[in-house]
Design brief:
Elements (H helix, E strand, L loop, with lengths): L31 H34 L4 E16 L5 E8 H5 L9 E5 L2 H10 L6 E7 L12 E7 L1
Antiparallel strand pairs: 1-2, 1-4, 2-3, 4-5
């Protein structure tokens, strides 16, 4: 004959650890003040971790899109094309062939340099120089990511050096 009172009941949950902030509250609360403190502690942990994640995301976005990783970079070559492109944000985009690619006879020509020009007066000046065949030195900044209002290229022209 089996005695059901002596066998362990596998369907009941043991009491939760009182030091665990994420443990579920027991059905019978012995101390309502302790339960309130646990809820406050959970709220502080969740708000703190959400704040930390928001700060980390803001720093990552700032570093990727707003802080250039290369400044005052100089590129010398011949401007082949400068045109206004874009669907919503019209920006000037250009291409140039560098002097290094034209004078290097050992390597195969790989690609031209593509760049964006945020200033309209600089773009107009580059458009005037593209058909002259004179070399141009461009002062540029490079970013890790592109923004639609800054152009489609990560290389941004900041000045033309004579």
């Amino acid at each position: 004959m089996k005695n059901d009172d002596l066998e362990p009941d596998n369907f009941t949950n043991p009491l939760p650890d009182p030091d665990d902030p994420f443990a579920p509250l027991p059905t019978e609360v012995a101390d309502p003040q302790a339960a309130c403190q646990r809820r406050r502690r959970r709220r502080h942990i969740l708000l703190g971790s959400a704040g930390f994640l928001a700060l980390a995301l803001a720093v990552a976005v700032g570093l990727r899109y707003f802080v250039p990783y290369a400044t005052e970079s100089r590129v010398r070559g011949f401007v082949t094309n400068v045109e206004r492109r874009g669907l919503l944000f019209k920006t000037f985009e250009g291409e140039m062939i560098t002097n290094e690619m034209l004078t290097d006879t050992t390597r195969i020509y790989q690609r031209s340099v593509t760049f964006s020009v945020p200033d309209d007066s600089l773009a107009r000046e580059l458009q005037q120089r593209q058909s002259t065949g004179q070399p141009v030195i461009l002062l540029t900044k490079r970013y890790h990511g592109t923004l639609p209002w800054r152009g489609a290229s990560t290389t941004i022209v900041t000045d033309i050096i004579e």
